[in-house]
Amino acid sequence: MAKKSMIAREIKRKKLIEKYTEKRRKIKSKLKNKLNFLEQIQIQQELQKLPLNSSNCRKRNRCWKTGRSRGFYKDFGLSRHVLREMSHDGLLPGIRKSSW
Asked: Short name of one Pfam family for this protein (predicted)?
């Protein structure tokens, strides 16, 4: 199980991303339309004033059951350990252990 502080930090990032998504998108669209170099610098400074954790690339995928960030399977939202346990128990439909 991941540390509670890491999970809480990830939740905080998610809220910041949701809050600033529209504002960040508008600033980036302004940046694409401007041709003057000085205007581009001013728009970049405006973008840099936003919180760092409001950027979507700061988001980390985590297992919904354990909070583990490594070995994450996007299709299931689980880490590899939990995926293996749940598939052996038959809790995931359509998943079975392969053998040949």
From this structure: Ribosomal_S14
What the block records as the tokens of 45 is 């400074």
Query: Over 80: is that where the pLDDT of 100 sits?
Result: no
Residue at token pair 């297992």: 63
69, 62 contact by CB (below 8 A) = yes
Residue type, 59: K
Domain architecture of the chain: domains with CATH: 1-60 (no CATH), 61-99 (4.10.830.10)
Residues contacting 45, CB < 8 A, separation 6+: none
What is the tens place of the pLDDT at every residue in 40-63? Answer: 999 999 999 999 999 999 999 999
42 SS3 class = helix
CA distance 26 to 9: 26
